[in-house]
Q: What sequence folds into this?
């Protein structure tokens, strides 16, 4: 499986030469949600695929749209807009699925569009402490400065774990 | 061809050692092969074409793939004796630890079972065995006083029944105490204060996580943790457990496990947009009832029943059981009811239609998907679609699990 992942990555890395960069930890794949730019560490990205037929799966939160069958692998899809409580938007030809491996489980992130792969060294990443709200784990690992733009860097493990959501749900007494 | 190869003439009957990951790789490829073949044969491009020779060839191809699948599945089958042998060694150890005399009887040790299943069976079986030795079998004096032979007997047996292997651990010890277990189960709210559950339903509660504690159910002490392991393993292996006990005469635990984990013969059901798969051997009947055959019981929260030849079968609507499932698109009187045989009796599940019967490739529910209830995993269909494989046992147990 590890081999397979590596193969996929190279096949989708047009214009991205991973070999030339010194530190893969500083590489981020950036994508758009409405007019904000977000980034995820490239290390967890397996591949990027276009939108395809989604099979619904029950017992999932609203933002998990279902699963796709990607060459024999079943991958759950998270609509990141819904995950962040942003308004839903119809999928179009720019909508893509970023397939990632997060804590050894596959997850596909549905985003408006992919932007680019950027190197953002730690010196250009702000890590404000106040993001963690009331002890809950923040989804944001930092804010990357790229020239005069910023990319919001996501903690994918937190994104998948829904730890930040669990508390209010418990309080509401959701069965 | 004329001269036998040296391997075939060898005294070990031409056995070959193969790394198990190579076989796993082969199984994966065979799975992908069968999916690709189905995808090709069902290609929408072929729709509406008259292809008699293609159809004949496709049919043949399908048969061959099926045979390759069976042959590959067989590669991974090992005799259950691999596990039994290790357990047999433990008996001497258990005798030493408990100071009891135990004879182990083994039956059906040559029953074939998936190597992946065999590898996971040892720990849970050891727990069952240890409990039988610890708590089932009485000390020699007590056995003599009760007119039994001084040495207790534990039977370890395996048997293939259809696509299932049944592994039985039976002791001739003192049996489970209905009184103590029932008291404890009522304390835990598993049964009402006046409810008198069937024995098979009552014994099952000993598998509830953390059910037994040494203080209250003395002859079950230590089962708490061990039974949890058993439960978790059985769920992972798509198996189920049955317990039978007779006070004074012993306890019998049987594990029902599918022979192979790789492929599953399934019926594919559609409800609205959602596809479900059910293992074919739990489907007992398919019916389209008349409106009058679907009474509801208001006193039970409006629970629906299906009347089938005078028998009333509870109805489980998937759109009620699962969160986020849309009700079917068919009018109520057009729905098809699939009747499942579960260990707690029959269960009728209405769906829009039955699509197909297929050998599906199972994928476990990993990561985010682990929270889906009453499911063994995802089934990849020949069409590239994904169906949820229903675990009818847990579906039958209702929303409490």
A:
């Amino acid at each position: 499986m590890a081999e397979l992942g590596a193969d996929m990555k190279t096949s989708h890395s047009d214009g991205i030469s991973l070999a030339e960069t010194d530190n893969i930890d500083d590489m981020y794949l950036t994508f758009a949600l409405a007019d904000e730019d977000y980034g995820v560490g490239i290390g967890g990205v397996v591949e990027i695929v276009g939108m395809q037929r989604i099979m619904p799966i029950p017992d999932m939160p609203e933002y998990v749209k279902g699963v796709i069958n990607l060459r024999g692998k079943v991958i759950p899809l998270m609509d990141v807009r819904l995950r962040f409580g942003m308004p839903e938007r119809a999928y179009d030809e720019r909508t893509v699925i970023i397939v990632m491996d997060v804590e050894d489980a596959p997850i596909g992130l549905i985003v408006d569009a992919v932007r680019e792969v950027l190197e953002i060294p730690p010196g250009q990443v702000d890590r404000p402490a106040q993001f963690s709200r009331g002890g809950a784990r923040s989804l944001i690992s930092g804010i990357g400065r790229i020239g005069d733009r910023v990319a919001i860097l996501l903690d994918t493990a937190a994104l998948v774990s829904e730890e930040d959501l669990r508390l209010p749900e418990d309080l509401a007494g959701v069965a | 061809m004329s001269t036998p190869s040296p391997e075939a003439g060898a005294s070990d009957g031409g056995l070959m050692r193969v790394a198990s990951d190579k076989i796993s790789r082969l199984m994966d490829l065979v799975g992908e092969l069968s999916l690709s073949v189905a995808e090709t044969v069902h290609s929408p491009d072929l729709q509406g074409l008259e292809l008699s020779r293609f159809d004949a060839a496709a049919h043949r191809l399908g048969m061959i793939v099926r045979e390759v699948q069976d042959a590959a599945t067989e590669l991974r089958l090992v005799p259950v004796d691999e596990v039994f042998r290790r357990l047999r060694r433990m008996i001497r150890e258990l005798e030493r630890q408990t100071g009891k005399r135990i004879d182990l009887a083994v039956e059906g040790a040559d029953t074939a079972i998936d190597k992946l299943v065999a590898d996971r069976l040892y720990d849970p079986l050891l727990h069952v065995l240890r409990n039988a030795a610890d708590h089932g079998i009485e000390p020699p004096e007590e056995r003599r006083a009760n007119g039994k032979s001084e040495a207790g007997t534990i039977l370890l047996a395996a048997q293939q029944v259809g696509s299932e292997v049944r592994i039985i651990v039976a002791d001739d010890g003192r049996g489970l105490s209905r009184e103590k277990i029932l008291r404890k189960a009522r304390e835990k709210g598993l049964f009402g204060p006046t409810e008198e559950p069937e024995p098979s339903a009552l014994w099952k509660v000993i598998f509830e996580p953390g059910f037994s504690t040494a203080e209250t159910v003395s002859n079950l002490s230590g089962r708490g943790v061990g039974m949890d392991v058993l439960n978790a393993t059985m769920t992972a292996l798509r198996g189920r457990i049955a317990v039978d006990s007779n006070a004074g005469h012993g306890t019998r635990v049987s594990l029902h496990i599918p022979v192979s984990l790789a492929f599953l013969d399934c019926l594919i059901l559609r409800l609205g947009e959602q596809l479900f798969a059910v293992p074919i051997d739990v489907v007992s009947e398919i019916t389209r009832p008349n409106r009058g055959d679907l009474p509801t019981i208001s006193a039970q929260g409006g629970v629906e029943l299906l009347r089938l030849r005078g028998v009333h079968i509870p109805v489980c609507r998937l759109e009620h059981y699962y969160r986020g499932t849309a009700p079917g698109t068919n009018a109520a009187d057009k729905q098809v009811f699939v009747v499942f045989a579960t260990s707690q009796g029959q269960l009728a599940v209405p769906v829009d239609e039955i699509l197909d019967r297929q050998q599906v490739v199972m994928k476990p529910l990993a990561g985010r998907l682990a929270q889906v209830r009453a499911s063994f995993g995802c089934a990849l269909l020949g069409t590239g679609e994904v169906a949820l494989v229903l675990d009818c046992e847990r579906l039958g147990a209702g929303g409490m699990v």
